[in-house]
Amino acid sequence: MASYDYLPATVLVLILLAVTGLLNRWKATSRLPYPPGPKPKLIMGNFHDIPTELPWVTYTEWGRQYGDVVHAQVFGNHVVILNSLKAAVDLLEKRAPIYSDRPTFPMLSLMGWDFSFGLMRYGEKWRQHRSLFTQHFRRDAIPAYHPVQLKKIHGLLRDLLSTPEDFIEHTKTLASAIIMATVYGYDIKLKHDRFIHLAEEGVKRLSEGALPGRFAVDTFPFLRHLPSWFPGCGFHRYAQNVSLLLDEMKNVPFDFVRQNMRDGVGRPCLASELLEQNDTQGSSKQQEQMIKDVAAVTYAAAADTTSATLDVFIMAMALNPEVVRKAQHEIDTVVGLECLPGFEHRSALPYCEAVVREVLRWSPIAPLGVPHATTQDDIYKGCFIPKGTTVLANIWAMAHNESMYPNPDKFDPGRLLNTDGQLNVDDHILGFGFGRRICAGRYAADATVWATIVSILSTFNIEKAKDVNGKEIEIKIEFTDGLVSHPKPFKCAITPRSDVNRQLVESTTEV
Ligand code: HEM
Questions:
Q1: Domain membership flag for residue 385
Q2: Domain residues for 323?
Q3: CB under 8 Å, gap of 24 or more: what pairs does 40-48 form?
Q4: Binding-site residues for heme
Q5: From the alpha carbon of 133, which atom of ligand 1 is closest?
Q6: Structural domain count, the chain
Q7: Potential cystine with 199: which of 299, 351, 370, 464 (Cβ 3.0-4.6 Å)?
């Protein structure tokens, strides 16, 4: 047939194009070096140089040795670490169109976790999901959540009154309770809550499954095409189980919302609002799936981050009694002793605001943010950054930069205030990340964290715990590894400031 006559020529042209492309790429790469970094070994690259424990500390050290932008390579994959705010702003914000992708891991999509727009590739689907989320979590939408946030925070105060030693459990419950109430209109039960169990399991399997090196398929993606009975391919079964769990995690709370809407007992919440819109507009199944996905992302992104931040706050207070006293003095002066603080007091509490900002700076709970990735080759300060590079913002290094924050390990809210006691201009919260992938829930997070911190400070003292001999138990400042880094368990004493405060907490009601 005539069309076959063109085949050899077409193949030749395609080969020529490919060779030219490769040549161009080779020329670019051979002309310009990658950013400086530890010398890679053959095949494995820097696999053995990348630490599994507290990698941000090693990356900060690399920053001192090699500069603000450090390059490493793992089995041919490029990784660039940004150790300064300037480099993060230059690349992740000013060049956002090409630095807003997320790296892909075969295990992530096999498990079904790529439903989350927080981990999704940059593109149209991500844009739609993020925009749906933002409608409900943009700055001016947050005041609608204040009543539910305060109600759940008052529940936390009651929990701290009855079992203060379980404070880590209580901050976790608070973070979950706020999210479940705002997203699904659901009040969690304290023990054995099915929704929370599903959500926690889903998030746990994500951190286990996405752990670098846990499954060979992430290093050798071709393995995904081999059947599950093939030796070393057990990851298929693991992924399938997680995927079933995720389906339940997304669907079960929605069945609850739908049932309540039908019974007319539903409370306004994100899911019911979205479902109503969807029903009245007669939208598609695909639209409903997007609503379920976006709602489910919220739990995954919000619960752990918020509770870890509150645990950092409690640790910082136990270590810094003078900060507790100053903040309490400010609250007593502005709010008085007869009531609990509310959002209307916020602008009159600059010292407390500085405490919140210092908590987020002193120990950022996502020290390396969430990895970004490049969608095009790029050149920065004379160095070549290839398309597909994983880009890590070392938030920990930026927050501990001595020239911006002298004596950075010291917890000192005063560094964020002018001499007149008002907040200084440093209001860039590094802990929320950068550019188009910046934390989409930051306004909700900020409101919850602020209100919890001032509510606890207004009613409780936080001090080091004492042993049976009355000797203070030292607190080790240690954090866990992982995408979200929590303080390692520590003991402290959380006691009501006075009988008046105790009664105030007791007088808050459950309804
Ligand atoms: C103090 C608590 C929180 C901290 C420190 C935090 C921090 C972060 C960070 C560092 C990122 C990655 C940013 C980047 O890629 O540059 C992120 C992403 C995200 N966060 Fe948060 N977060 C917090 C709470 C929340 C809450 C309460 C919600 C939901 C209500 C939320 C929703 C999200 C979402 C959806 C993303 C993914 C954004 C995207 O990929 O487009 N976060 N967060």
A1: no
A2: 148-172+295-360+403-511
A3: 40/72, 40/73, 43/75, 43/76, 44/74, 44/75, 45/72, 45/73, 45/74, 45/75, 45/76, 45/77, 46/72, 46/73, 46/74, 46/79, 47/74, 47/75
A4: 439
A5: 35
A6: 1
A7: 299
